[in-house]
Design a protein that fits this description.
Layout lengths: L1 H11 L14 H4 L29 E13 L5 H11 L6 H10 L2 E20 L3 E17 L1 H9 L5 H4 L5 E2 L1 H4 L4 E20 L3 E23 L2 E8 L29 E14 L3 E15 L3 E6 L2 E2 L11 H15 E5 L3 E4 L3 E10 L3 E10 L11 E11 L2 E10 L2 E4 L2 E6 L3 E7 L13 E12 L6
Antiparallel strand pairs: 1-2, 1-21, 2-3, 3-5, 4-11, 5-6, 6-7, 6-8, 7-10, 8-9, 9-13, 9-14, 10-12, 14-15, 15-16, 16-17, 17-18, 17-19, 19-20, 20-21
Helix pairs in contact: 4-5, 5-8
C-alpha cells in the first residue's frame, strides 16, 4: 500500500496540472474556463464535437506541441497545502494542526489533476466533402477523494475517531471503513480521426453532423476506491514508469511487458464520439455531443486486490504521535487488507460525457457561449461533478483575441479564466490560465496553464 500513500501525497502536493476536466491541450479553451462546444472548429473539434468539423474556418489547419496542465481542489486552502507539505517533509505538527488537516482532506474533491498535450493535430476542409481531422494526444487524468476515516487515519493515527468505534484487534473491512474514498489516475496515448459535414442546408438554418474514432494505448491505470460496499483496487503501468514487478514474474497469471516499444502500452481500447451542431441565422450556434464511448482492455503488468479485512493495531500509549507515524499506520493497515495479485485481463469503461452548448455571435468581434458537461459513468478520468461555464471571446482588433468567462463544477470552485492570443490569417499563438485568481486567493490553491506554440491556418473554405 506504500504506492497508494505515495500517490495520494504526490497528487495532493501538485500545484499545476489538471484536467479540470477540460481540454487543456487548447489554450483558447482554457482561456474560456473550459467552455468549448460551440467555439471549437478545425482540429480543435476532436474529442469535443466532431459535427463542428463541417463548419471549419480553414482549408488546412494544424498545430505542433500544444498543451497544458492544471490542478483544482474544493477542499484545500493555501494554508492547508503548506501544512501538508511541511508534514510530508518531516516537520512535526501539533495534534490540533493534524486535526485541521484531517478535516480539510475529508472531501469528495481533495484534488482533480491532469495534463493534456497534442503532439500534432491537423484538419482539412473541402467543399462538398466536409472536414476531416487527425491528431495524437497524451492525456493524463486523476481524482482524489478521502472519507473521514481514511483522512483521520492518515493524519491522526491512534487519535482517529475510528478507535472509539472499533477495538484494537477487531477485524474490519475497507468496504465499510473507507466508503467514499477514491484515488484514480490514468494516462493514455490517443490516435484520433474525426469527420464532420453539413447535413441540412436551409436559408436560415445549417445543421452539421460528425463522428470520431480513437485508438487508445493505455500507459498507466490506477484505482483504489470504496463505494457502496464495493472495493476496486487495481493498477497497470508501462515499463517506462520503472515500476518494480520482480516479485510477480514467476506467476503464470502475470503478463509482463518488458519495454516492447517506445511507449510500451499495457492496455488498448477504442473510443467513439458523435455530435451535432447548428447555426441559426449565422448568429446563434448550438452544439450537442457524446464523447468517449467505448472501453479499454488492460492485459499487461496488471495487478488487482481484494478486500481481505484487517485488524486495528494496538495503541502503544505514546503521547507524542507524528504525522509520519500516522501515515505508516495507515500504510500497515491497508497493506494487510489489500493484497495485490496478478490477473490476466481487466476491462474498464472510457470516461463517457454528454456535452451541450449554446453560443451567440455579437457582431464581428464578440462571441459568447454557455457549456454544460455531465459524466455518463464513473470511469477513471471522468469528471466528479457536472460542469457549467460561460465563455467570452473578444477581438478588440483583428490581431488580438482576448478570452474570459466564469465556470464551476467538475471538482472546481468558481474559476475566472483569462486567455490572450495573437491572431493572423495564417498563425495563432496564445497563453491562458483557467483561473487568474488562483495565485492570490487563500481558498483556491490550484491553477492551470496552457500554451500553443504552432497553430497554423491555410486558406478559407468556400461557402457553397
Amino acid at each position: 500500500m506504500k504506492k497508494l500513500l505515495m500517490l495520494a501525497a504526490a497528487f495532493a502536493g501538485v500545484q499545476a496540472s489538471a484536467l479540470a476536466q477540460t481540454e487543456l491541450s487548447s489554450f483558447s479553451v482554457v482561456g474560456r474556463g473550459g467552455v468549448m462546444n460551440t467555439f471549437v472548429h478545425d482540429f480543435q473539434a476532436i474529442g469535443v464535437n466532431p459535427g463542428n468539423l463541417g463548419r471549419s474556418t480553414s482549408i488546412v489547419s494544424f498545430t505542433i506541441g500544444e498543451g497544458g496542465v492544471g490542478a483544482s481542489s474544493q477542499a484545500l486552502t493555501k494554508t492547508t497545502m503548506k501544512r501538508f507539505i511541511e508534514a510530508a517533509e518531516g516537520d512535526e505538527l501539533t495534534l490540533a494542526a493534524r486535526r485541521d488537516l484531517a478535516k480539510a482532506f475529508t472531501s469528495d474533491n481533495v484534488l482533480n489533476a491532469g495534463a493534456d498535450f497534442n503532439t500534432f493535430a491537423i484538419s482539412i476542409n473541402l467543399p462538398k466533402f466536409g472536414g476531416l481531422a487527425f491528431s495524437n494526444r497524451q492525456r493524463a487524468l486523476s481524482h482524489v477523494a478521502f472519507n473521514k476515516n481514511f483522512s483521520e487515519l492518515l493524519f491522526l493515527g491512534q487519535d482517529a475517531e475510528l478507535y472509539q468505534q472499533y477495538a484494537p484487534g477487531q477485524t474490519v473491512y475497507v468496504s465499510k471503513l473507507f466508503d467514499g474514498t477514491e484515488i484514480k489516475a490514468s494516462w493514455v496515448n490517443e490516435w484520433n480521426v474525426a469527420y464532420g459535414r453539413k447535413i441540412i442546408d436551409l436559408p436560415l438554418l445549417n445543421i452539421y453532423g460528425g463522428a470520431g474514432y480513437r485508438y487508445i494505448q493505455g500507459m498507466a491505470l490506477y484505482e483504489f476506491s470504496s463505494n457502496g460496499g464495493e472495493v476496486k483496487a487495481y493498477s497497470a503501468a508501462s515499463p517506462i514508469l520503472d515500476i518494480d514487478y520482480d516479485k510477480y514474474l514467476n506467476d503464470p497469471k502475470f503478463t509482463y511487458n518488458d519495454a516492447d516499444g517506445l511507449l510500451s502500452p499495457v492496455g488498448r481500447g477504442h473510443g467513439f464520439d458523435i455530435g451535432l451542431s447548428a447555426e441559426i441565422v449565422k448568429i446563434v450556434k448550438v452544439g450537442l455531443s457524446v464523447t468517449d464511448l467505448g472501453k479499454m482492455t488492460w492485459t499487461e503488468n496488471l495487478l488487482q486486490a481484494q478486500d481481505k479485512g484487517f485488524k486495528l493495531p494496538e495503541i502503544d500509549g505514546s503521547e507524542e504521535y507524528s504525522f509520519g507515524e500516522a501515515a505508516n499506520m495507515a500504510k500497515t493497515i491497508i497493506d494487510s487488507a489489500l493484497v495485490f495479485s496478478p490477473v490476466s485481463e481487466l476491462t474498464t469503461d472510457l470516461p463517457t460525457r454528454l456535452r451541450a452548448g449554446v453560443g451567440v455571435k455579437i457582431g464581428e468581434r464578440v462571441e459568447v457561449g454557455i457549456d454544460y458537461v455531465r459524466a455518463l459513468n464513473n470511469a477513471p478520468g471522468n469528471i466528479s461533478q457536472d460542469f457549467v461555464g460561460l465563455g467570452i471571446d473578444v477581438k478588440p482588433f483583428s490581431a488580438l483575441r482576448l478570452s474570459t468567462g466564469v465556470s464551476t463544477g467538475a471538482g472546481d470552485k468558481i474559476n475566472l479564466p483569462v486567455g490572450i492570443a495573437i491572431v493572423t490569417p495564417v498563425y495563432e499563438f496564445g497563453v491562458s490560465t483557467r483561473d487568474v485568481t488562483a495565485p492570490f486567493v487563500e481558498n483556491n490553491p490550484g491553477g492551470s496553464f496552457a500554451m500553443g506554440f504552432l497553430r497554423f491556418k491555410i486558406g478559407k473554405p468556400k461557402v457553397l
